Amino acid sequence: MKIRLLAGLLALGLATACGGATVESAPSATPAEGSASASAPTGTVKIAINPWVGYEASANVVAYLLKNELGYTVELPEIKEQLAWEGFETGDVDVIIENWGHPDLKKQFIEEKKTAVEAGSTGNKGVIGWYIPKWMADEHPDITDWKNLNKYADLFKTSESGGKGQLLFGDPSYVSNEAALIKNLKLNFKIVTGGSEAALIKGAQQAQAQKKPLLFYFWDPHWLFSKTELVRVKLPEWTEGCDADPKKVACDYPEMDLDKIVSTRFAQSGGKAYELVKNFSWTNEDQNAVADDMTNGGMTGEEAAKKWVEANPAKWQAWIPQ
């Protein structure tokens, strides 16, 4: 791919701190082939990496373009979901590239502390839910209704679930409603934390291939749905405000228009880097393709991002500020 060369700008020799996005004078050295022009605006942008591969896919594509199209240095610190929001205040984070709702965090950091602002939709539609392997739904058609879960609780027992059915969860840092749902729906289940997204994926694949019962927390978009047949369990329908009090939640998750959150300082002083982040928008299919290459194709995040960028110039060129 021929990287667009930005030329004709003189280095200003100014350094402006803006929540981790520091604009520096452009280097005078001749850039390497495939890199941004030496006279392009440079600086450092810190994009938090939350622990799921779809997020990493989005972050790596944006990082690749920031580096190769606009000449920025990009840091990708691995930071848990809620801690990333706190990083807006400390300057450790400029960008959360994929936010799954969290009205409580928006109230705290956007409305009250005013350390963060919304930066528009990612284009991805997100759904969190409880899933089982398809063979279980085939054998027990009524198992997909939450009202019947207690009837089948014994099927889901494991050595870790203490005599109750197991609900397998992922990274303990995920912000979720599972404990409240089990309590308020009076389900005879116990949350067992697998510890990571990888543990959920492995569990789902084994459950389908080996016909092992499994009820687990998961989300879409995700490449796993194109590889493994899964069925979502219907929890009580989500209605506006049913999840307002985290302790009283007794409804399913809503479909979410995933969005981007940035630090207030980055929004005010991030220049073209902020504009690119704000313009970034793609589909679930785009994200899944990059995530699949990272997980199953043996590619690094940068390699997978490069592959997608080279294959989709018409999409990303619209994100680049003029």
**What is the domain tally?**
2
Q: In the CATH hierarchy, what is the class of the largest domain? A: Alpha Beta
Assess the beta-strand content as a share of residues. Answer: 15-25%
CATH homologous superfamily identity of the largest domain: Periplasmic binding protein-like II
Using the 3D structure, state the CATH architecture of the largest domain: 3-Layer(aba) Sandwich
Mean of the pLDDT scores?
88
Oligomer: single chain
Question: What structural keywords apply?
Answer:
322 residues; alpha+beta; D-Maltodextrin-Binding Protein, domain 2; five-stranded antiparallel sheet; three-stranded mixed sheet; 11 helices; 19% strand
Itemize the secondary structure elements and their pairings:
Blueprint: E1 22-24, E2 42-46, H1 53-70, E3 73-75, H2 81-90, E4 95-99, H3 103-112, E5 116-133, H4 134-139, E6 165-169, H5 178-184, E7 189-193, H6 197-209, E8 216-220, E9 230-233, E10 256-263, H7 264-269, H8 271-279, H9 284-296, H10 301-311, H11 313-316
Parallel strand pairs: 2-3, 6-7
Antiparallel strand pairs: 1-2, 4-10, 5-8, 5-9, 5-10
Description:
With 322 residues, this protein is α+β, with helices and mostly antiparallel strands. The protein folds into 2 domains: 22-125 and 257-317, Periplasmic binding protein-like II (D-Maltodextrin-Binding Protein, domain 2); 126-256, 3-Layer(aba) Sandwich (D-Maltodextrin-Binding Protein, domain 2), CATH 3.40.190.100. The protein is built from 11 helices and 10 strands. The strands form 3 sheets. Strands 4, 5, 8, 9 and 10 form a 5-stranded antiparallel beta sheet that branches. It has a 3-stranded mixed beta sheet with strand order 1-2-3, covered by helices on one side. Helix 1 crosses helix 9, helix 1 crosses helix 10 (301-311) and helix 9 crosses helix 10 (301-311). The longest helix is centred in the first third of the chain and has 18 residues, at 53-70. Mean pLDDT is 88; it is low at 1-40.
